[in-house]
Amino acid sequence: MIVASAIVLVPLLVVLLTSLKTDKEASTTGPLTPPGNWFNFGNYLTAFQEGRLVQALINTTIILVISTAGTVLIGSMTAYAIDRFEFRLKKLVMGLFLVATLVPGVTTQVATFQIVDDLGAFNTRWAAILLYLGTDIVSIYVFLQFIRSIPVSLDEAARLDGANSFTIYRRIILPMLKPAIATVVIIKGITVYNDFYIPFLYMPDAELGTVSTALFRFKGPFGAHWETISAGTVLVILPTFLVFLTLQRFIYSGFAAGSTK
Length: 261
Prior knowledge:
Blueprint: H1 2-19, H2 23-28, H3 42-50, H4 53-84, H5 90-102, H6 109-118, H7 125-134, H8 137-147, H9 152-160, H10 165-173, H11 178-194, H12 197-202, H13 211-214, E1 219-220, E2 223-224, H14 226-259
Antiparallel strand pairs: 1-2
Helix pairs in contact: 1-14, 3-14, 4-7, 4-8, 4-11, 8-11, 11-14
């Protein structure tokens, strides 16, 4: 337990100490050496202004909200259709979903890039949003496991009262998927917030930087400003840390509910 805690906490301590050091201290002292001035917040100011972290947070928030909401909507609707309706080639569709999870994403990047470019989404926020929406097969399986636990008799009773398929989904199925929605939102949120590859490749414009690519600006061909990168890392960690403290009860219950399905 102590070793596991040290593996997690020591890198964070190194980042915090480095963020308070000067350029000379960062390059000449050890990673666990305390800074000469504990109130040296100049690196944070540099990271905040030159890293355009405000714009990066705005871009990340827009992409995160739309991608997560779309994933919940598309994933729950797809799972509802697969589980509740019989149609031709249903098993083939399920098999293709499974194949899609097994294909490494990097092997299809050339074709994916061409499609995004043909759609006119390259170098816009829609490139990341479309890719995050279209590649989340895991969410469909999460919703599918939860929907299979909802009795079909509820659907049949609603149909006797005159409800159509969309009304059943909206009034019965979706409200009962709250644990699954919490699980998908957590998984998707962490993935989008931490992803570097898609924003870096599909949104090269400096104004479209996200929190992950904004820190990359402080690394150049003549070296890296690790003290500034560390300060930016602390600023990037703070929002997720506050969200975790606020929503930790829902996060734990979401993962627990997902693991029992």
